[in-house]
TrEMBL record:
This is tRNA (adenine(58)-N(1))-methyltransferase non-catalytic subunit TRM6. PANTHER family: TRANSLATION INITIATION FACTOR EIF3-RELATED, TRNA (ADENINE(58)-N(1))-METHYLTRANSFERASE NON-CATALYTIC SUBUNIT TRM6. Keywords: Nucleus, tRNA processing. Heterotetramer. It is found in: Nucleus. Signal peptide: none annotated. It comes from Coptotermes formosanus (Formosan subterranean termite). The lineage of its organism: Eukaryota, Metazoa, Ecdysozoa, Arthropoda, Hexapoda.
Length: 492
């Protein structure tokens, strides 16, 4: 029980959802604890050490040029419209009301002065009502609409919530849909349903340009005995959504983030003939800087400046001169270069020896492999022992080469899902899969979502809605009977 209570306590470094009415914002709690909600600056020191789902009242701080608020814990939030609507008369209709811009007696400077002076939101809205010529002549519905509009601007309460998949997906989609490839929450749920995740399975995910949203969603349903092989094309994986979910160390240990090219290098080391199709995989960015490892082991960790990095590259070139000779015009004098190499080796060895002396009591003599290489080897071993239980491809690139390269590592009778913003690449991939014999039940679908406003006698769809949430190509992996028959006939 105590551990469950500790999980719900806000700590420095946690991600939280700040909710102000219908508006939500994802924020990482840091030492400074300051967040901007619109033009309002809010200090969050009060939420550290307090449980989530706590409501706070924004108390204005007097002085300063911009609105600054401190938080005070309270039991519940109060509706501004309900407080001001008590004992207030209203008109029968709005026929005699004209919007000439002169109904409000207060100027803009005076209203801004109320905010900077530290006046509460309820007091400001009360002043606006008292100095309005037409408010009391409006109908009850018009008055309620006006108060809700002002309440949205001057609302004084926020609630701290724990991140969930729905909230994180909605926030990312609302902030910038292109950063997550216009992946709506309903399409994300279709992906999870189609791939059929179970807690102890091993799943492959290729994701590029989606901020780790699909990885966070799949990891949410995988248990401690399962694995998620998260493949990416760049040098660094995108895991913003994974970090936002505040997963513990046990959950994060199930995630193996590997570069797709590095993974295939590990897989093809023992069986090079399996790459007979010459499939082109996404190339890494900054491939020239790949594998900057000095000849003295893991000593490149101490290289911090650009000059040291260039020295490491030169040392690496010297080691591989037998297989990749350098142009004679660009080479230095052989004697000078040998002296320089010897000096660099001595410097690197001295630094490494000093580092070993510092950690001789706590570390083993052998240097540890980089984490990315360890995860690549572990992912390759998992796929060599048993094939994956499902495959998901969410790619900014054309998914044809990626899917055909990964399908041989998916077990038979297991599902695969491909997401794309546009329909045409999936239709081409659909025709390609129909010509092969290793998939079954292929279909291209599009999910459609429209939210509705539910009110008393006023239920109707929302005026604004998303134009599209992308397309899905799904199917089942089966054994390639054509290749099996050809191989058996050739053996006979």
């Amino acid at each position: 029980m105590a551990s469950e209570m500790e999980k719900n306590i806000v700590k420095v470094g946690d991600y939280v959802i700040i909710q102000r009415q219908d508006y939500t914002k994802l924020h990482k709690v840091g030492p400074k604890c300051v967040v901007m909600l619109g033009r309002d600056e809010i200090h969050l020191e009060s939420i550290i050490g307090r449980p989530v789902w706590t409501t706070y009242k924004m108390e204005p701080k007097k002085g300063g040029g911009k609105p600054v608020f401190m938080l005070r814990e309270c039991d519940m939030s109060e509706s501004l419209a309900e407080q001001l609507k008590k004992d207030m008369s209203s008109g029968s209709d709005n026929r005699n009301i004209f919007d000439d811009g002169r109904s409000q007696l207060l100027s803009t400077e005076e209203i801004i002065g109320f905010r900077t002076s530290g006046m509460s939101g309820q007091a400001i809205v009360g002043q606006l009502i008292e100095n309005s010529k037409t408010f009391r002549d409006k109908t009850e519905y018009s008055q309620e609409k006006y108060l809700k509009k002002k309440e949205k601007k001057y609302f004084e309460y926020i609630t701290i919530r724990w991140p969930t998949l729905r909230l994180v997906s909605q926030i990312m989609f609302r902030t910038d849909p292109l950063k997550i490839l216009s992946l709506r929450m309903d399409t994300l749920s279709q992906i999870l349903t189609t791939v059929g995740i179970h807690s102890h399975g091993t799943y492959m995910l290729y994701e590029s340009g989606c901020q780790g949203l699909v990885a966070a969603a799949m990891l949410n349903y995988i248990g401690s005995n399962g694995h998620l092989i998260h493949m990416y094309p760049e040098n660094v994986p995108q895991k913003q959504a994974v970090f936002a979910m505040n997963y513990d160390s046990d959950k994060m240990s199930c995630l193996l983030s590997v570069n797709i090219n590095a993974l295939f290098e590990k897989l093809l080391q023992e069986n090079p003939a399996s790459n007979g199709n010459n499939i082109e995989l996404p190339k890494e960015e900054n491939a020239d800087n790949k594998g900057l490892i000095s000849e003295s082991g893991n000593c490149d960790k101490v290289v911090k400046s650009e000059e040291d990095a260039s020295d490491v590259i030169r040392r690496k070139e010297d080691v591989i001169t037998e297989t990749d000779p350098i142009n004679d015009k660009s080479m230095w004098d052989s004697s000078k270069q040998e002296d320089k190499v010897m000096e660099e080796k001595e410097v690197v060895s001295d630094v490494c020896n000093e580092k070993k002396r510092k950690h001789s009591d706590t570390e083993e003599s052998t240097l540890k492999k980089p984490r990315m290489e360890e995860e690549s080897e572990k992912a390759a071993e998992l796929l060599k022992l048993s094939k994956a239980d499902g495959l998901v491809v969410v790619a900014r690139e054309n998914p044809a080469n990626i899917l055909t390269a990964l399908l041989p590592y998916v077990a038979a009778s297991r599902p695969f899902v491909v997401y794309c913003q546009f329909r045409e690449p999936l239709l081409e991939l659909y025709r390609l899969l129909k010509c092969r014999h290793n998939t079954l039940g292929n279909r291209v679908t599009e999910s459609w979502l429209r939210s509705h406003q539910i009110l008393a006698s006023r239920t109707h769809p929302d005026i604004s809605m998303s134009g599209g949430g992308g397309y899905l190509l799904s199917g089942i992996v089966v054994e390639d009977t054509a290749n099996t028959e050809e191989s058996s006939s050739s053996q006979q």
